[in-house]
Amino acid sequence: MTIQPVLEVDAVSKYYGSFLAISDVHFMISKGEVVGLVGLNGAGKTTIINLILGFLRTSAGKIRIFGNLVVPENAYKMHSRIGFATGDMNLFTNLTGAQYFSFLKRAYKLKDTKKLDQLCKQFSPELDKKIKFLSRGNKQKIALISAFMSNPELVILDEPSSGLDPFMQQKFLELINAEASKGTTILMSSHYLKEVADVCSRVVFIRDGKLVKDVSRAELESSHGKSVSIITKTAVKIPINSSVISHQKTANGYEISFIHKDSPVKLQKWLVGLPQLVDFNIEDHDLESAFSDLYDKPGVKNV
Amino acid sequence: MFNLFRKTIYDKRAFIIGWAIGMVFFAFVMMIFFPAFKDSGLDQMLVNLPPELKSLKGLIGDIGALSTPSGYLAGQFFDIRMPMFLSVFSVILAIGLSIKDEEAGYIRTLLALPLSRTKLFFGKFLAIVVISLSAVIASAVGLLLGAAVVNVSLDLVVLFNLSLVTLILLICMTTLFYCVGIATGKRTITMLVGVLVSTCSFLLTTFVKSVDWLQPYENASLFHYFPAADIVKNGIFYGDILVYVFITLISILAAIILFRRRDVR
Question: For residue B261, what are the CA distances in angstroms to A54, A187, B183?
Answer without folding.
Answer: 10, 25, 9
